[in-house]
Amino acid sequence: MPCKDMTLFYSPASPFARKVIVLLHETGQLANVELFDVQLSPVSPSGDVIARNPSGKIPALELANGDTLHDSRVILDYLDHQHSGEPLIPRNGARRWQRLTLASLADAILDAAILIRYETFLRPQELHWPTWLDAQQEKIERALSELETQADTGQLQRFDIASISIACALGYLDFRQPQLGWRERFARLASWYEDISKRESMLSTQPPT
Ligand code: BEZ
Question: pTM higher than 0.85, yes or no?
Answer without folding.
Answer: yes
